[in-house]
Amino acid sequence: MTTAPASTALAPTTMPPTTMTDRLLDGLAFSIVERGYRETTVADIVRHAKTSKRAFYEQFASKEQCLIELLRNNNTDLIAHINTAVDPESDWREQIGQAVDAYIGHISARPAITLCWIREAPALGAVARPLHRQVMRDLTEILTALTGSSGFRRAGLQPIEPAIALILLGGLRELTALFVEDGRDMRGIAGPATAAAVALLSPH
Fold first, then answer.
1. Could you read off the pLDDT of 151-186 as tens digits, one per residue?
2. Which one, of 139, 147, 121, lies nearest residue 200 by Cα?
3. Residue 182: CB partners within 8 Å, gap ≥ 6?
4. Where is the HTH tetR-type domain (predicted)?
């Protein structure tokens, strides 16, 4: 069972859910924090959502589909958080720091969901493959856009190549998983992540 340490495993949202789908997604999120995804049942989800199994199956065909939607929403929130945090006019090194800080802020608020994306979603096999590819594509695109900003252009830097971005993101995902699993302070990711990005993006 993959769970985040209880002291840091916060629920992914703080705003009251507005639709039945939102309630069910929050129900799954709370159960992941409480029991881990593998041990979570539809009964757990509807208990947290304060609804019925019938209502669940009106929205989702399975627990797996519910998880995929939860992780898709989580990715959308992450992208928005980074976009809001980064000032494209800042020095390029500052932009890297802003992006890393935004990433850490997001995952620190929902470590159990983050760990589920990294460790559990791949185990779903083909059903989760489109989600994984979409997430990595979205993150690659935001890195490409960030490194194509005016702050990077002023330094004479070219936008990061997609293959290099994937290498950077893959390492960051694994480091994130290790920090969550070990219950370490997520701020410890900042130094290595920033150093790796600067090294890859610096003029050679």
1. 999 999 999 999 999 999 999 999 999 999 999 999
2. 147
3. none
4. 18-78
